[in-house]
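Our consortium's second objective concerns turning raw sequence data into structural hypotheses that experimental partners can test. To show how far this objective has progressed, the report includes one record in full. It was chosen at random from the queue rather than selected for favorable results. The single chain below, 228 residues long, was entered without modification.
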Amino acid sequence: MISNEHVTKVYKMGEVDLTVIKDLNLEIKHGEFVAIVGPSGSGKSTVLNLLGCLDKPSDGKVIIDGVDVTKLDTTALANFRGENIGFIFQSFNLIPVLSVYENIEYPLIMIQNLPKEERNRRIMQLLKDVDMLDQKDKFPDQLSGGQRQRVAIARALVTKPKIVFADEPTANLDTETSNQIITLMRNIQREFNTTFIFATHDEKIVTAVDRIITIVDGVITDDRRITS
C-alpha cells in the first residue's frame, strides 16, 4: 500500500538546512493498524505528512498504491489525496459554521462532487456508525470533545479512503472517550480493511495497534509487529 524509498526531508531555517527525516525506508501493507511513536521533535508528524501527501520529500520517493506521488503536480496530488486518503487531526479541524451533517458532507462536495442522494446515503450510514445520528444538526461548539472526534472520523471516512492518517487523535480526550474512539477505529479497520496510521504519544493507542514504528531524530530506530 505504501512504500518509502530513501526519503529525506530538509527545511530551510534562514541560512541553515534542518534535516528532519533522514533516508527513510518504510513499507506499510493494506489494512495495517500502525502507530508511529517517538519523542517530541523526532519527526513522526513530518513522516505522517509525507505519507499522507500533505508535504513532499526533499529527496526520495513516496509510492502509494503503486503511484509515485512525488511526481504528481499540485492538482493531481490533491485529487489523489481526496480519492485515497482521510485525515483525523488532534484539533478536529471541523468548520464551526457548518453542522455535523454538513462537516461530513464537505469533502464529498469539494473533492468527489457526488450526487446528493449518494452523499446523503453515505453520511447517514456513517452518522449511525459513529453513534452521532441524533446530533447531525448540531454545530461543533455544541459538542463534547469525544463527539467532535467522532464527527472528524466520519468526515475522514466518508470518501471511502484506502488509508486514514491520524495525528494524535486522542490527545484532547479523556480516558474513557479515548478508548471508545480507538475501539471505533479498530472496528472500522476490521470491517473495511482500512489502513490506519497514527502519530501518537498515547499509550492506549500503542497497546491497541498491530505494529509500532519508533522514530528518533528523523531515523527509524525500531519497527516491530505485535503478536496477539
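The partners drew two points from this record. The helical segments are 44-51, 74-84, 100-112, 116-129, 145-157, 175-192, 203-206. The first strand starts at residue 2 and ends at 13. Both points have been shared with the crystallography group to help prioritize constructs.
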